[in-house]
Design brief:
There is one protein chain. This protein has 217 residues and is an alpha/beta fold. It is built from eleven helices and six strands. It folds into two domains: 134 residues, Response regulator (Rossmann fold), CATH 3.40.50.2300; 82 residues, Winged helix-like DNA-binding domain superfamily/Winged helix DNA-binding domain (Arc Repressor Mutant, subunit A). It has a six-stranded parallel sheet, sandwiched between helices. Helix 8 packs across helix 10 and helix 9 crosses helix 10.
Length: 217
């Protein structure tokens, strides 16, 4: 993927760039403020942006919202030092597929970070579980799902693959797939190759009552 990195901490920005390059991605620009992020994305048209939510010369979240309004296919992985659950819902609900929101201090290994880059780049979500704890889900959605299905959906939102969910919950991949099928049916997300059901399910959980199989993302 072609990636732009926006991070005002130089050492962290350089480390992320080296990691992504080593994994086979092309880092097309590195910037340290929100204004430059908008300029470079408009110039480079990357596939994905990795951005700090708080940067000089503007707010990272606002810059991302502005970019996604014009470039709906742009995937974004936000990084933050501070837990801000209130910032998540508007970004998720107003977003096209491909969105992540991670706490820097909880990215514990490069493999999981790269897995989340892949998930977001492929149109999925990658939201830190601590942030998800601030959202208990829509009441009507929560009442539809079993406790295990809520666990599975939370791990989907955090960017885990089916294999990762199976390992975390100590169940088989076939069981994970069965839970996902049940979730999609209960949330009225009919099978459709043009719709990312996992993203739609997460959006329903965050409160988007219109996120159904009839709505193209």
């Amino acid at each position: 993927m072609r990636i732009v990195i926006a991070e005002d901490q130089v050492l962290l920005r350089d480390g992320i760039a080296r990691l992504l390059a080593a994994a086979g991605h092309e880092v097309v620009a590195e910037v340290g403020d929100a204004r430059s992020l908008i300029e470079r994305v408009n110039a480079c048209r990357p596939d994905l942006v990795v951005a700090d939510i708080r940067m000089p010369h503007g707010d990272g979240a606002q810059a991302v919202a502005e970019l996604r309004a014009r470039l709906p296919d742009l995937a974004v992985l936000m990084l933050t030092q501070v837990l801000e659950p209130s910032a998540v819902s508007p970004l998720v609900l107003g977003a096209a597929p491909g969105f992540g929101y991670l706490l820097k201090d909880r990215v514990l290994d490069t493999e999981s970070f790269l897995e989340r880059i892949r998930a977001v780049g492929e149109g999925g979500t990658a939201i830190d579980p601590l942030i998800l704890e601030g959202h208990t889900g829509r009441t009507d959605t929560r009442e539809l799902l079993t406790g295990r299905e809520v666990e599975v959906l939370t791990l989907v939102a955090s960017g885990r693959s089916n294999a990762g969910i199976a390992a975390e919950l100590h169940i088989s991949r076939r069981t994970v797939e069965a839970h996902l099928r049940a979730i999609f049916v209960k949330l009225d997300l009919a099978a459709d190759v043009d719709v990312n059901q996992r993203v739609l399910a997460v959006r329903r959980w965050f409160g988007d009552a219109d996120a159904t199989s009839n709505r193209r993302l």
